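A quick aside before the break. I want you to see a complete sequence-to-structure record at least once, exactly as it would be stored in a machine-readable document. Don't worry about memorizing anything.
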Amino acid sequence: MSTIDEVKARIDIVDLVSEAGVKLRHAGKNYTGFCPFHDNKHTPAFVIWPETGTWRCFGACNEGGDIFKFVMKREGLDFKEALQKLAARAGVQVDSYQRETPEQKEAYDNLRKLLEDAVIFYRGHLLNSREILSYLREKRGLSDATIETFGLGYAPPGYETALKHFTAKGYSEQELIDSGLLTVREGESTHVDTYTGTRVYDRFRNRIMIPIRDEQGRMAGFGARIVDPNDIPKFLNSPETPIFSKGRLLYGLDRARKPIRTADQAVIVEGYLDVIALHQAGYENVVSPMGTALTEDQMRLLKKFTRRIVLALDPDVAGQKAVLRGLDAARSAMDKEGELGFDARGLLRNESRLQADLRVASMPDDLDPDEIVARNKEEWKTLIEDAKPIVTHVMETLAAGQNINDPKVKNQIAAQVLPLIADLPNALERDTYRQALARMLKVDERALMESPAQGQRVRRPRLERRDPPPSEAPVAGLAVVAGSLIHKSEAHCLGVLFRRPELLYRLDRRLQEGGLASLSTEDFEYTDHQMLLTLIRQSLEQVESDQHQYVVIHLTDSLKTLAQELLAEAEKLKPLEERLLEDLERTVQKIRRTRASQDLTQTRFLLEEAQQSQDPIVSFYQRRALQLAQLLNSLDQAKRHSTLRRQT
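That is the input. The structure line, written in tokens, reads:
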């Protein structure tokens, strides 16, 4: 019996759901009640089938699952966390999911205990400072209840206040350094500092202290805001420690994850105090990064709770100025403490990889989020509802205050927006945004279609061309059709491999025998397909459990529905291994041929355009066309090789 099956066997789903506050009543062999995941007190649309240990909501949620899915949705956990929690309840050991050794766990628990003591320490100093309390109450508009709820504190000005306090309590200097409360003077770690009298000193001095917890509510570190406007930096975080990593934490997520699930939307703001003020105003689905650009790890954290994410941009940081400074993936401003960098291309890539819906809301009248809710609570709700897709936001921001009738302005805007459109994975979206850009710039859409992806210049359409290639007008439509075929082929291939992961190595060998490369994520156009293939290949590299079961256990929430659909389709296939291998080989060849043919058609069209305009990019298109032709030739040879093998 697998670990998952053992946990399911030991936990009664009716008891689990009842303990969560859902009132159930008998309905034959089953139980019904009101769904705990949405407001509906009229129809008991939530049904439990005790025999199978499953549940489903036939109302607004239209979701269902087993005990793991219920706990994941109820408490905002991922699968591993839900498994650990239910295994502990059932008394089942889950060794393979132990992320920390016992020694590490003890050390990390000690660091968290020290940080909890620090919360109390800084809290005491805040209560003894009328000036700081007055600032938080009057200037920031925070109530005493909010200050208490979020554990705000104050670090006094001295260099040794925290050092002396915690060493007197029995903590060592090394523990204080490891927790991030003390700083070691660089280059003098073994000498006494002549100014402070010690080699270490308090990292946080004369600052408002904001405890930062992980999504489970455990202390991880601190964010510290200046009191004296002359101090720098404005915000200072704990240094990187074993339990504090800026790129993997989101401030406020421990309190926001349930509201995020309820609203099915997460809002990201720049400042910690903005988060606190918005929570106080009743908008509890708000979080903040650690003062730098959003990372994919942070986005994945949010993805556990919702696919709908709004980036609320401060006007003085990530609004017009940030966009106009450039849209490259790496901006030096992203590394500045206290500035939430706006990287349009990076956000689009995250949106594509994570299958999310990312939007941007701009703050009006040079106001920060906390100032907006202080002015009018309902205004914040409207701003978030009116959030725009990233590309639309960039287009409107670049056009604001510009003379759109000026050809040079048109060219500049197109040069910055077209690369973003080109990055979009969906052909229909690309076509829609090109049309919107053409309308905004008041130009013929063909002029944008003929512009190179880099957007270096926008060429005029050549009206003298009488017979455009067949690919010109229906390019977008063909892309949609081809995309649909590729999607079906990818899904079919993954369905077989999900059912039988061990076939992947044999498939690789067959492809290589035909002169082709092994199957890789580059063969898959869709992000969720790429993620699932990566997981299947990982299952072959571990020996802890059955390969298929490994894939099932490690499926993320976003992949589970896909995996179920793929498995259902794969069940219809004949079980003969050789037949499955032949089918897989043909499917991969079909995927590669479809995409290569589509790319070659488009490349030839672009090559003709470049040759007629004597564009230097001609050589690039020529090389690309040759590579694609060679790939198609290799695929033909591989197909003949496969046919001969089957005949013999």
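Two observations worth writing down. The radius of gyration is 29 Å. Residues 577-612 form the longest helix (36 residues). We'll return to this after the break.
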